[in-house]
Amino acid sequence: MKIDMEIYDQIRHLQVYEGLSQRAIAKKLGISRNTVAKYCNGEHVPWERKEYTPRNAPVITEDVIRFILRCFEEDATHQYKKQKHTAVRIHKRLQNELGFTGSESTIRRVVRDLKNKTTEAFVPLEFDPGEAAQIDFGTAYAYIKGHRVKLKFFCMRLCFSGHYFVKSYPAENEECFLDAHISAFKFFGRVPRRIVFDNAKVAVKEGLGAYVSKENTRYTEIKAHYQFSTSYCNPRSGNEKGLVENLVGYARRNALVPMPKVESFDELNAHLQDHCIEYLQHSIKGKIGTVGENFEVEKSALLPLPLYHYVPEKISYSRVNSYSLITFQTNKYSVPTKYCGKEVCLKISAMKIEIYYRNNLIAFHERHFGKYQKNYDIKHYIKLLEAKPRAVFNAAPVRQYIPKEVLSRYAARPDGQKLLLAHLREVNGLKETPDITVIPTHLKHYDKLIKGVTG
User: Rounded to the nearest 5°, which phi and psi values hold at 152?
Assistant: First the structure.
């Protein structure tokens, strides 16, 4: 029985000053004689407790312990956090494989104790101004033009000041990866001396973690141009870039909640950049001064920008088919019909595709990252449709550009084909010999087309 200080004082007083027996003290105070025996001679005191050493139940044998540890080792061989052994699953396997007869609660306690014993210790890190930045990609969702879109957002965080940059992209590929670096350098106005990140395939050709032996050609080019070095984290070691790991979650919870509703990635990225600038007023726990004040200290230690920025475009070649389409990564994009059968040059950036013939720009499109999509520019087909007007109501470029209800109004008129072609030419501002350099905004001119058919 545990007693308070008042009872302990009375037990000692009655024994020392009045010389009462243990039986008499117990009777007078109304407590157990065993309690009096424990405390009357001052051998034990109520403010000290012996450390409790839990004992394993008899059913927890060395074989059971080894089995549980093997389950931990098996989990460590893969990185799927949602497919690891729980205490319940381990208990079920012990019953099936070792004939274990103990309770589930016993296994839960043992699993908890073993995990506490195997918790990894981390070394606190400290960085000099300008020494390093950490980068990573996160995943989030936003509404773009009314559609819910899954996006990737790039994060770069300076290790000394904590200042950061975030930019969203439709995908996590080489063009987006390189463009993100350049955008971050422009935002900071300087370049960190070293960049720390994981083994992204967009940067690494061969090797793993600290043993990376070969980087992709274009990444070696951008490193040479901006003069930064790289450090690669080991697999499943997010603690090695904990600053940016925290930033990914912070940006998702703050800059992307509530889910943004925007018209374009440019609008979304302007919103994200505003959050980056606002963070300059933030104070990081454990650091003296604001992020902005520390960034001013760090800025002078960062590397200067080169005189011009690296161009992160990919070059590819394609032959225009008989439908006036070129193919890039399963998606098709239109060019003016006079280039059918010609080989053209594609300049692919993070967000758009430019198409050249003999160094002349003949078309450009917003880049798509799905599969087997066809992207038509109605301007490319108007002259061909004027030569083949009977195809106008079934032409795929027309159907992609004009909704069915508008087409049905034109089709109901005797002169519908001729009228539609005339209005398409007028709406797109085409002269007698159109030269395509601009793709119209999708669905932008419906009001004029409807006015044309009803006027």
Answer: -110, 140
Residue 206 has pLDDT above 90, yes or no: no
- DSSP string computed for 307-338: SS-----EEEEEE--TTSEEEETTEEEE--GG
Q: Beta strands of 129-228 (E only): which ranges?
A: 133-144, 147-158, 164-169, 194-197, 204-206, 214-215
Tell me: cis bond preceding 414? Omega within 30 of 0 counts.
no
Helices (H), 45-167: 62-76, 87-98, 104-117
Model-level pTM?
Answer: 0.67
3-state DSSP call for residue 232? strand
Rounded CA separation 107/113 (Å)? 10
Q: Which fold has domain 133-299?
A: Nucleotidyltransferase; domain 5 (3.30.420)
Pairing outcome for strands 194-197 and 229-232: parallel
In the chain, where the domains are located = 62-117, 133-299, 314-454
- At 364-401, the pLDDT tens digits run 999 988 889 999 998 899 889 888 888 888 899 988 88
The helix, strand and coil proportions of the chain, stated in percent and rounded to the nearest 5, come to 40, 20, 40
Mean pLDDT to the nearest integer, 173-194: 94
How many CB atoms sit inside 10 A of residue 235's CB?
A: 10
